[in-house]
Amino acid sequence: MKPLILDGTVVANHVKESLKSRIEDLKNQDITPCLATVLVGDDSSSETYVRMKGNACQAIGMESRRIHLSEETTTEELLKVIQDLNNDDDVHGILLQHPVPHQIDERAAFEAISIEKDVDGVTSLGFGQTAFGFGSYPSCTPAAILKIIDYYEIDVEGKHAVVVGRSPILGKPVSMMLLNRNATVTTCHSYTENLQDILSNADIIVAAVGKPNFIKGDWVKEGAVILDAGYNKGNIGDVEYDSCFEKASAITPVPGGVGPVTISMLLKQTVDSAEKRI
Amino acid sequence: MKPLILDGTVVANHVKESLKSRIEDLKNQDITPCLATVLVGDDSSSETYVRMKGNACQAIGMESRRIHLSEETTTEELLKVIQDLNNDDDVHGILLQHPVPHQIDERAAFEAISIEKDVDGVTSLGFGQTAFGFGSYPSCTPAAILKIIDYYEIDVEGKHAVVVGRSPILGKPVSMMLLNRNATVTTCHSYTENLQDILSNADIIVAAVGKPNFIKGDWVKEGAVILDAGYNKGNIGDVEYDSCFEKASAITPVPGGVGPVTISMLLKQTVDSAEKRI
Q: Is B252 found in the same domain as B151?
């Protein structure tokens, strides 16, 4: 049987549709939800990502304030920019594009974002709140994965979810969020021995490893739900799509899977933040 | 072959021994490390725990300030007490004994503890920092488990660790700490299906489920390392000791395992905090 294709474009449109009247209502109260994006340096993929996010804001009637700093920016200069955005009442969300040039203390920069404006869910406080089940703004890609799960009514409770990857914005938070939904969660990474054995027992697989076509159809159980959060050059996911398609009961494509939903969650969380200003 | 007994008393004494000269040095600078314990209500086990912690402070030359509030305390009253302790320069650590009476918003009370004094590791910020690998004060029981692992030089990297339990002060943080040590980590809980299957593949088991004698020897792999963080009435762990003893390569007893090390970590983290005052 062919698997259910978890179409991220459909989910993203659903999310964005639900935002329109909320944005309208805010504008009637003279508030335009505004996301500030901060890009440091000249990485061309990062420029593309930031542009996509800015355009997505504008397409839906939100404001996007784009700040582009030079490759030579110091940590102190970046912290000052973030502090100014924290203090700016017209800004409701702050997104610092990862990665930043090597001379910058990226963690310090993320931590400087105030929790009220951390709509991208990058701070340790935001992560902790999410893990404890009361956070306002989970990291956007994990939030997107959960949104897809909800939209397609995928059963998570009691299921064995295997997350491949343990980054602060993806593997760790999605592990915690799935745990809070009563999944049994295994988090794997580059040191994991017998990854294939572990994957072969997974009901749900979240691929967040950053290696193109890494997870093969041979490794996964018949009927597994496969969520591919990988972004690799050339729009290739972490999952070898064709072979996994043969085994999965449901699967996200790349592109058109987790990616567009991630952006829609960023918009949603910026609108959430703007509404708290009323 | 008989398993290695992971003797918590030995580890706790080792930790406490290392604190003596540090406390001496602090006193020479007119700083006596001080832990404030806050107990709300009349739960007799809680009273015992708090007394043990206070006594442990005093035995090692630290100060313990014991605050006992009535069963009828409101959230607001408790928050005020915590705020006063946050502002008190003579207090280096604050421990709010769990559980508090039902009318109190326990999470709000925990969150009110300033990160500088959260030596018991209960705040969402402290948890997030620990999970991201840069926290000062992890939750004490997880810290104790890692200390036992280090003391007995148990190999964690690449191993499959199964944590049974997902509480904010135990299952979740110990999962993140083991993950940061490059273990593959599975977190299980009451909704987990096929727990026995999962345990049968575990190289390391952390029992944090709160059910006496819950984990049976039949369920565990020959040679597993078993760390029992359970505290149940009558000094009974979560692990059925005799049957697990037959299978394990290393095992913590109850009592005399994780418990005493937990208290020593609380003392250590209070001393750490006092040293930051210099």
A: yes
The catalytically annotated residue of B16, B117, B118, B120 is: B120
Here the CATH number for the domain that contains residue A111 is 3.40.50.10860
Is the whole-model pTM more than 0.90?
yes
Q: Is the ipTM of this structure higher than 0.95?
A: yes
B144 and B111 fall within a common domain: no
Q: Is residue B166 part of a domain?
A: yes
Per-residue pLDDT tens over the stretch A150-194:
999 999 999 999 999 999 999 999 999 999 999 999 999 999 999
Q: Is B120 a catalytic residue?
A: yes
Mutating which of A110, A129, A167, A186 best tests the B interface, going by the most B Cβ atoms within 10 A?
A186
Is the preceding peptide bond at B255 cis, omega within 30 degrees of 0?
A: yes
A172, two tokens: 């760790």
Q: How high is the pLDDT of residue A231? A: 84
The reply to whether B195 and B248 lie within a common domain is yes
- Total number of domains in chain A: 2
Pair type for strands A184-188 and B184-188: antiparallel
Instruction: Give pLDDT tens digits for B28-67.
Output: 999 999 999 999 999 999 999 999 999 999 999 999 999 9
pLDDT surpasses 90 at A233? no
Q: Which residues of A are catalytic?
A: 53, 97, 120
Nearest to A179 among B157, B159, B187 (CB): B187
Residue B230 lies inside a defined structural domain of this protein: yes
Q: Are residues A206 and A106 in the same domain?
A: no
Containing structural domain, residue A207? 140-258
Say if the Cβ atoms of A127 and B123 lie within 8 Å. Answer: no
Pick from A54, A24, A19: nearest CA to A37: A54
ω into B173 cis (within 30 of 0): no
- B146 plus B106 within the same structural domain: no
* Long-range Cβ contacts of A64-68 (<8 Å, 24+ apart): A64/A34, A64/A35, A64/A36, A64/A37, A65/A34, A65/A35, A65/A36, A65/A37, A65/A91, A66/A36, A66/A37, A66/A39, A67/A36, A67/A37, A67/A38, A67/A39, A68/A39
A109 and A48, same structural domain? Answer: yes
The answer to whether residue B3 scores a pLDDT higher than 90 is yes
Q: Is there a single domain that holds both residue B171 and residue B237?
A: yes
- Chain A: nearest CA to B184, how far in angstroms? 5
In a domain, B133, yes or no: no
B158 and B212, same domain (yes or no): yes
pLDDT band at B108 (very low <50, low <70, confident <90, very high): very high
Q: Is residue B263 part of a domain?
A: no
- How far B197 CA lies from chain A's nearest CA (Å)? 10
Tell me the CATH number at B158: 3.40.50.720
Structure tokens at B223: 């040679």
